[in-house]
UniProtKB/TrEMBL annotation:
GO cellular component assignments: plasma membrane
Pfam families from the UniProt entry: Na_H_Exchanger
Domain Cation/H+ exchanger transmembrane, chain residue ranges per copy: 12-394
Membrane-traversing stretches: 30-48, 91-114, 120-146, 167-192, 198-216, 228-247, 303-320, 341-359, 371-389
Major localization listed first in the record, in broad terms: membrane
Protein name: Sodium/proton antiporter (CPA1 family)
Organism per entry: Pseudonocardia kunmingensis
Length: 418
């Protein structure tokens, strides 16, 4: 355990101290965390091998679950009522039509290219359906995106990526049950389980967030809370919602998002700003942890065993999973061609995909090693490609749309997105 703590703390420290240097040279902390994980993992130095201690996917699933909760809550704390009102139709399409389309297209690629049975292909497709809140937030937050991308574009991508992590669970449950039970039994079982998971999260998450925000406001008015404790409210609420909703049988990740969203809508800016800053910092720590662990369990031999079909599947996921589906679905909104192209391309995989790939092991399928290898290869390809294309894409969008602003100014587009 001490070895894990030393490696984790040293990685966070180095990446934090060199954060400006990394940004200047377009280096991604996510990719560097994966590289550190590979270096200290069993295939190189052998300092850390989760498979030999608590199990390969057990540690990965738990770390990813906490990182996801912090990541989705971080985004929720940035969202206002006006963001939801202006982007409601666009976000609704992204969370329904586009999600289902991404699931089915990815599953089709898994069946055609990898030869997986239908139910197993649907399980892999479900695990790779949600866009990642952590990677997406890195693409849409910070000085450069704030100056060059309209707020409505940034918020649409962020809210979608935060909400669809919890909403992907019913897809994973359905596919997993179809792979392990007769169709009729699986459907009945799924209706009960998915209804319980989503229902508890929707019932408990907002209530918990509203109560936390209300108590914080009352405590501030009565001068009961010390100023140094205010910033911890977001982290505490996200983790409380994650654990409590999960203990009650619901989707903890969705519960954390809804709780943080309720906090954001109920808190005044004087409280929301410090709460959000601390939550954002905690989210970055979680990212380093999950991608570091991810690097230690990458199945290089499994990638080799997949061969060319594995590479083709990763390319299928990058090019067909989201771009054509999102482009077509958003055509019915007031989203212009350039913004549709941006939203269609940037649906990165990341922590959410890692979490559901680890979660899928509980079904004990004979094809699981193939699923894990193909899924991790697709995640790595997405993180690499979307990270490398993020800055050029933002700059190109700004030049073509005329949204670039001088340093220190942010972009606000009141009308339809260009």
């Amino acid at each position: 355990m001490d070895t894990v703590l030393v490696l984790f703390a040293a990685t966070v420290l180095v990446l934090g101290l060199a954060s400006r240097l990394l940004k200047r040279h377009a280096l991604s902390p996510v990719l560097l965390a994966v590289a550190v994980g590979v270096l200290v993992g069993p295939d190189v130095l052998g300092w850390l091998d989760p498979a030999a201690t608590i199990g390969r996917t057990r540690l990965l699933e738990e770390v990813a679950r906490v990182a996801l909760a912090l990541g989705v809550a971080d985004i929720a704390l940035q969202v206002t009522r006006d963001d939801l009102r202006r982007n409601g139709r666009r976000i609704a399409l992204l969370l329904t039509v586009v999600m289902v389309g991404m699931w089915l297209v990815t599953a089709a690629g898994a069946g055609l290219l990898l030869g997986l049975p239908l139910a197993v292909a649907l399980l892999l497709g479900a695990a790779l359906t949600p866009t990642d809140p952590v990677v997406a937030s890195a693409l849409t937050s910070g000085a450069l995106p704030s100056r060059m991308l309209p707020r409505r574009l940034r918020r649409s991508l962020q809210v979608e990526s935060a909400a669809n992590d919890g909403l992907a669970l019913p897809f994973v449950l359905l596919a997993g049950l179809l792979a392990t039970e007769p169709a009729g039994t699986a459907l009945t079982h799924w209706l009960a389980e998915a209804g319980r998971e989503l229902g508890i999260a929707i019932a408990i998450g907002p209530l918990l967030g509203w109560a936390a925000a209300r108590l914080a406001r009352l405590a501030e008015e009565d001068e009961l809370i010390a100023g140094s404790y205010v910033p911890l409210l977001g982290v505490a609420t996200a983790l409380l919602a994650l654990a409590l909703v999960h203990l009650l049988g619901g989707s903890g990740v969705l519960g954390a998002f809804l709780a943080a969203l309720a906090v954001s809508l109920a808190l005044p800016d004087t409280l929301r700003t410090p709460v959000g800053e601390t939550l954002s910092a905690a989210s970055r720590v979680g990212v380093v942890a999950v991608f570091g662990v991810f690097g230690t369990v990458l199945p290089f031999s499994g990638w080799v065993a997949l061969g060319v079909p594995g590479v083709l599947f990763a390319a299928w996921v990058l090019l067909l999973r989201r771009p054509p589906v999102a482009w077509a679905a958003l055509a019915v909104t007031d989203t212009g061609a350039r913004s549709r192209t941006f939203l269609a391309w940037f649906g990165p995989l990341g922590v959410a995909g890692i979490y559901y790939l680890a979660y899928a092991e509980r079904y004990r399928l004979p094809e699981y090693e193939q699923v894990f290898a193909a899924g991790t290869l697709a995640v790595c390809a997405s993180v690499l490609v979307h990270t490398l294309t993020s800055t050029p894409a933002v700059e190109l969008y700004a030049r073509r749309s005329g949204t670039e602003r001088p340093e220190g100014e942010t972009v606000e587009v009141p009308g339809p997105l260009p």
